[in-house]
Amino acid sequence: MPTAGLLLAGCAGPQSALDPGGDQAHALFSLFGLMLWVSGAIYAVVLAGLGWALWRAWRRRGTDARRDATLVGGVDARLDRTLPVVAGAIVLGLTVLITGSFFADRALFATRAAPALEVRVTGHQWWWRVQYRDRVSDGWIETANELHLPQGVTVRLVLNSADVIHSFWVPNVAGKLDMVPGRTNRLDVTARRPGWYRGQCAEFCGTQHAHMAFAVKVEPPAAFRAWLAAQAAPAAPAEGRGAAAFQATCAACHAIRGAGAAGRAGPDLTHVAARRTLAAGALTMTRGNLQGWIAQPKAIKPGTSMPAIPLTPADADAVATYLATLR
């Protein structure tokens, strides 16, 4: 039983292509199932042909020399009649797979009318910039390392890279698509099952490739609209030691809308405490992890572009407390 449980462990969960929660993922899952059955059938036909050949060869052991002369490499030459059967099964199987692949490809990239929502996703070493089109102001609402999708609504993801080749992949929702510097790719996704999922960069992009993840939440349209409205709001004006220390040391790289910080090198932190994870999935979002990340980012994520901030312990504590209020 433990072995069976281990074998089935990849069949479900927040990062499994075998547990589809969206139209595009379901198309890929159906193609996988077709490949599994067709390949299994061909494998069974080949094994049956081999078994029959061995059985016929075994039956003919000890016969006269004339019949033994018909053996070529231990296989009765008369068994050549099985070759058309095996070849036919292979050709038929490949034809079925090609047809299934064609229709799956059409389902993934079918031309549709303009989706109800457009989201820009830009890969950085090693984090994700996520921007939602605000249809009221025609501007962009920015967050990082977290993607929210309205249930049952087709969303167009506009994929770009700011540095090297990355690859966007949320196995439960859609297949992967590369993000190439200087090139814009588009991926339409329609998530059907609400819940939290995990996305991951699927193209090796450097030291922290394995820690370039993002959280994905599929939620009812009304909940999504409420979340997006909250994200569009600026941060509440803040005063005190934490806000002052942030402005002095962090504002050059990070933006906090409404607080006078407009840096673009790093993630937007306007509502950072409302996110599920920190540092592109490397840490869960807690006040303690915020302070640890501020103090020693390279100890947590070696190679990250974020430097260790020269803050006194009291200032680091104050900045972490301030950021923890940004919800």
TrEMBL record:
Signal peptide: none
Bilayer topology annotation: Multi-pass membrane protein
Entry superkingdom: Bacteria
Main location class: membrane
Keywords for this protein: Copper, Electron transport, Heme, Iron, Membrane, Metal-binding, Respiratory chain, Translocase, Transmembrane, Transmembrane helix, Transport
Positions of the Cytochrome oxidase subunit II copper A binding domain: 114-230
Location in or out of the cell: Membrane
InterPro entries found in the cross-reference section: CcO_II, CcO_II-like_C, Copper_CuA, Cupredoxin, CuRO_CcO_Caa3_II, Cyt_c-like_dom, Cyt_c_oxidase_su2, Cyt_c_oxidase_su2_TM_sf
The protein's Enzyme Commission number: 7.1.1.9
Catalytic activity as recorded in UniProt: 4 Fe(II)-[cytochrome c] + O2 + 8 H(+)(in) = 4 Fe(III)-[cytochrome c] + 2 H2O + 4 H(+)(out)
Pfam family, one: COX2
Residue ranges constituting the Cytochrome c domain according to the UniProt record: 237-327
Transmembrane region(s): 27-55, 83-104
Primary role: Subunits I and II form the functional core of the enzyme complex. Electrons originating in cytochrome c are transferred via heme a and Cu(A) to the binuclear center formed by heme a3 and Cu(B).
Family statement drawn from the similarity comment of this UniProt entry: Belongs to the cytochrome c oxidase subunit 2 family.
PANTHER family: CYTOCHROME C OXIDASE SUBUNIT 2 (PTHR22888:SF9), CYTOCHROME C OXIDASE, SUBUNIT II (PTHR22888)
Name recorded for this polypeptide: cytochrome-c oxidase
